[in-house]
Specification:
370 residues; alpha/beta; Rossmann fold; six-stranded parallel sheet; 12 strands; globular
Length: 370
Amino acid sequence: MTKKLRVHILYEHSADLRPHGCSYIRLLLPLSHPTISDRVIVSYGTASAKADVTIVERTWSSGISTAMAEALVKQLRRDKTTLIYSIDDNLLDLRPHGFNRSPFSTEQLMTMRCFAREAAGIIVTTSPLQDRFSGLNDNVVVVPNALDERLWESKPPLANTAGVSNTRKVIGYMGTHTHDSDLMMVLQPLRDILRKHADKVELQLVGGFADPAVLEAFAGLPVKLLDVGDNVEYPAFARWMIQNVKWDLAIAPLEEDTFTRCKSDIKFLDYSILGIPGMYSRGPVYGKTIRHLETGYLADNNPQSWAEALDLLLRDDSLRQSLAKQAWEYTTSTRTLQQRALDWQQAIFSLAGRQELLPITSDTLSLANN
């Protein structure tokens, strides 16, 4: 019997020591999935532990320093432990000022580069992100995002959406502090449709915003910020989403720049597994996954295109139902850990020099090109 590979995860965390959402999506859930439990033994925490492989995620600790990073690298080399670095965003190219400004210090950015250079290899989410980090490391492997079906308990979309039976249709948006400029990009068409149909349309927002101007821009309009309360840790957040998000249409605008071009299609997966039809920015991030007018609506990044799409999708109940159904079918059949956890095993075994590799499927190659 082949000896199991011991993998220890140093996940990214803040002062509360809890794993971030990306830690669950990218490491903790994939590597603890039952489909690979016979080949991998996983441990995780905020401090190093004995293992065959140690995976360091993003900045690791909010209090990280280059001295800490260098000390960890030396310790792992002494212990003959393979270091793998994992990153899911082009954090090196966030803007220093304005919207999407970088929340990372110079010291944190230096440690990211240190881990990327010193690792045996890097695991990323997309091919553009692979290209971005290839200058720091020769071994950069793409493992696309997938959702854990055990958390979402996904059911097929209902035959009718909420807006068919209710007088007010709900547009939803989920974002983080690095997406302020994306929402502001479609501010005008959103404001116009909310003002025109104030008694029939509502915008609901989930997430945090770095600049208060984002919310101030919707003053006086039917906009609600949904409070997740204590459900901030990813498993609890997934349950909260299932129970509280009842949207007729979800949007994912995305500006195109050096940072966003490396992003993944995770919002499409989040919306789709909930059975919510989505409207997305046309471009490299969503354009390679979504089939326009089949699994989602792709809109050009200009106010007129978004205004026309919002008007169409809010009026056409049948189209929204069709988009929701086909997006849910794609996500649940192709982009859950039931089908994709083995990709993680293969990537780690490859970077650790193990030979017991599974064949790369055509599905894996297709996703990696997104």
